[in-house]
Write a structure and sequence with these properties.
Layout: E1 4-9, H1 15-24, E2 29-33, E3 44-49, E4 75-78, H2 80-88, E5 92-105, E6 108-109, E7 124-135, E8 140-145, E9 153-156, E10 161-164, H3 176-187, H4 196-211, E11 215-220, H5 224-237, E12 241-247, H6 255-265, E13 270-274, H7 276-283, H8 289-308, E14 314-318, H9 323-329, E15 353-355, H10 363-372, H11 377-380, H12 400-419, E16 421-425, H13 426-434, E17 445-449, H14 450-453, E18 456-461, E19 467-471, E20 474-487, E21 495-496, H15 501-514, E22 518-523
Parallel strand pairs: 1-2, 1-3, 3-4, 4-10, 11-12, 11-14, 12-13, 14-15, 20-22
Antiparallel strand pairs: 5-7, 6-8, 8-9, 9-10, 16-17, 18-20, 19-20, 20-21
Helix pairs in contact: 4-5, 4-10, 5-10, 7-8, 12-15
Bound molecules: xanthosine-5'-monophosphate.
Residues 341-342, 384, 386-388, 456, 491, 528, 532-534 line the site of xanthosine-5'-monophosphate.
Length: 536
């Protein structure tokens, strides 16, 4: 049985990060709303209580009855989780006066405590709290202090119950991963057997058992999530998987052709549907961004359904939904606050059940799974691309000619990002390697392309704008393009990437010299928030 740690989510921004750290320790975990503990799940081996935006004294603070958890599983409370247990069991939590935010050092800690195994003297931790524990319950003892925080960590006497005021999951708690490892491996007994290979084996076996001889339909987008889902399903059920890839005419240059070729090489049973004429006709003259999105969404469902309906024996609809899609979709009271935007509204009479084989994975884990199944690197490292495609990167109305101009400019930009190599060291190199980018460390440095270093890049055609230029002896009056490149981990927030000037100079030249219809190149230096990644 797959062991798991349950992370009860009290709403902290860093809850997902706890999950990530545990997965990095090859330990499977589930993040659940604070009040949804799975009491009858025999695979649970330990529990972590997350931080929270609330103070334990707020009337609306989240409270959970730990009676059937305490004593049954090892528990680690982090920040609010630690304060909540301290207060619940008779200790005292008070306002710290001002928020304590930032670096601190464990000046004293119990070297014998299993939570601190392998810790250095004065280990740096990261604090972020407004309240502080001023008294711990009877039968609890303090196991660490900083210069400002007396009860930086505690343990219940002779019990596997700990609380830490700092955040071991954040990068700046330098031995935070060690602490989490001590908890999940030494204390909870994790076998650390969660790996992409084991995931593939277990999931293929489960899919075989779940799907039997049933037909499954899957919408492919060319992106990594749906492609990896398709390859997994193909391993499990082979030709009973039918994939549908709709070309709405607003994909990147040659993308439909190239991706179809990749899918065929992977042995997938794919139907490619060129519906671009319908999309262009329905979008004619439409300039409003929301209207464009609605038309594309509606047309997409129509085209996809018309194909899907041909498979009257289909019993399942498979999707490449990944874990962050679902975590974002739940607020901590369990209500759906955001729905998925890709394949929606299949006809009810088809009566399809949903199959989401990647629903427990983070994006970089999806990539690791894809690699473990031998998928080509360019499919795995492909940047996210919006469902409505280049339509949301052309301001104003959409015509095949504008799409052609944008495809050509974008192709130069993206190829340039792939060709330009940079050397990284230290934290930057660690971050890129942790994301699974294959690169060899040599003399403390790795070499990666700009493309692999950033989350997402694309080109926007400002077709509602014209400006004057001069080419040779001729005056031009054409459109600008804006280049966008962002760093991010989940697309919820993003920063503009600091691309090298020599790269920008070359791309700008290449685009203006080779793409007829463009005479100016700009670089978008807005972060999200307040801007978004896409322009429309
Ligand atoms: P924004 O523009 O909201 O984008 O910052 C966040 C991420 O979502 C992608 N995106 C979409 N993906 N269908 C999708 O599948 C859509 O309609 C859509 N709109 C935006 C965007 O490319 C970025 O990765």
């Amino acid at each position: 049985m797959q062991q798991k740690i349950i992370i009860l989510d009290f709403g902290s921004q860093t809850t997902q990060l706890i999950g990530r750290r545990l997965r990095e320790l090859d330990t499977f975990c589930e993040i659940l709303p604070y009040n949804k503990f799975p009491h009858d799940d025999p695979s649970v081996i330990g529990v972590i209580l997350s931080g929270s935006p609330y103070s334990v004294y707020d009337p609306e603070a989240f409270k959970v009855d730990l009676t059937n958890i305490r004593g049954k599983y090892p528990i680690l409370g982090i920040c609010y989780g630690a304060q909540y247990m301290a207060q619940t069991y008779g200790g005292k939590v008070e306002s710290a006066g001002s928020r304590e935010y930032g670096r601190a050092n464990l000046e004293q800690f119990d070297h014998e405590n299993p939570l601190f195994k392998g810790f250095d003297e004065n280990s740096q931790v990261w604090m972020s709290h407004g309240d502080t524990i001023t008294a711990i319950p009877e039968n609890f003892h303090c196991i660490a202090s900083t210069s400002k925080v007396k009860f930086a960590a505690y343990q219940a006497d002779n019990e596997k119950l700990w609380g830490v005021q700092f955040h071991p999951e954040v990068f700046h708690s330098l031995q935070g991963t060690q602490l989490l490892k001590n908890f999940v491996v030494d204390i909870c007994g994790s076998r650390q057997d969660w790996s992409p290979d084991s995931f593939v084996d277990t999931t293929v076996a489960e899919l075989k058992a779940q799907l039997g001889n049933d037909r499954v339909i899957l919408g492919l987008s060319g992106g990594v999530d749906s492609s990896v889902a398709a390859v997994l399903l193909n391993r499990a059920i082979g030709k009973n998987l039918t994939c549908i890839f709709v070309d709405h005419g607003m994909l990147r240059k040659n993308e439909f052709r190239d991706v179809m070729h990749d899918y065929e090489c992977l042995g997938l049973n794919v139907i490619g549907v060129d519906a671009s004429a319908k999309f262009f006709a329905d979008l004619e003259g439409v300039t409003d961004p929301e209207q464009k999105r609605k038309i594309i969404g509606r047309d997409f469902v129509e085209v996809f359904n018309a194909e899907a309906k041909k498979f009257t024996d289909a019993k399942w609809l498979a999707q490449g939904t990944i874990y962050p899609d679902r975590i974002e979709s739940l607020n901590i009271t369990g209500k759906v606050i955001k729905s998925h935007h890709n394949v929606g509204g299949l006809p009810k009479e088809m009566n399809l059940q949903l199959c989401e084989p990647l629903k427990w994975l983070f994006k970089d884990e999806v990539r690791r799974v894809g690699r473990s199944m031998g998928m080509p690197e360019h499919l795995i490292t492909r940047h996210p691309f919006p469902g409505p495609g280049l339509a949301v990167r052309i301001l104003g109305d959409i015509t095949p000619e504008k799409v052609r101009i944008l495809q050509d400019a974008d192709d130069i930009y993206i190829r340039g990002l792939r060709d330009y190599k940079v050397k990284l060291s230290g934290e930057e190199a660690r971050r890129v390697l942790a994301a699974g980018v294959p690169a060899d460390m040599k003399d403390g440095e790795i070499e990666v392309s700009l493309y692999d270093q950033i989350w997402q890049a694309g080109t926007v055609l400002l077709s509602t704008v014209r400006s004057v230029g001069v080419m040779g002896d001729e005056r031009t009056y054409e459109h600008p393009v804006a280049l966008r490149a962002v760093t991010s981990t989940d697309a919820m927030t993003a920063d503009w990437a600091h691309l090298p000037y020599d790269f920008m100079a070359k791309v700008s030249n290449d685009i203006i010299n080779h793409v007829k219809g463009v005479n100016r190149v700009c670089y978008d230096i807005s972060s999200k928030p307040p801007s978004t990644i896409e322009w429309e």
